[in-house]
Amino acid sequence: MSSRDKVVQGFVVSGKRVGTALLAAVFFAGCSPVQPRKIEDVVAQRATARWAALLAGDFETAYHFSSPSYRAAVTAAAYRSKFGRAVRWLDAKVGSVTCTEEVCEVRVQLKSEVVLGAVKSGAPIHTEVVEKWIGEAGDWWNFQSF
Question: Does the domain at residues 39-142 carry the CATH identifier 3.80.10.10?
């Protein structure tokens, strides 16, 4: 290794190559296709994932979309007990997401059916649910009242 060589991350590189490598790294970092995601997109993705878990009957996964402050006060078993068995969700689609800096309103179109024992309601019921999602602990969470 000559006095003009440099050690860069454990590799010996000549002076000219270091400059070229650094210039290329700066150039390509500026051309990166990764863009910051809009809050509405993040919340829509999380709301969709939460409803996918609910549709699958995976209340444990759905519970983890609740805010950390909610989860600190309410157990997963208590969360599960909030959902009865008289209605079965058939489909859920996130319609619109409107956000401020701290709160998002998510409109979800639900298709469900009433199930009483072995009797089903017949025609599916279409309704809209409006959810609040809050920014807390660096992410967006479904707001649940206690």
Answer: no
Q: Provide the whole-model pTM.
A: 0.72
Domain boundaries, the chain: 1-34, 39-142
In the numeric block, which tokens belong to residue 65?
């979309």
| pLDDT tens digits, 53-108 | 999 999 999 999 999 999 999 999 999 999 988 888 999 999 999 999 889 999 99
- CA end-to-end span of the chain: 67
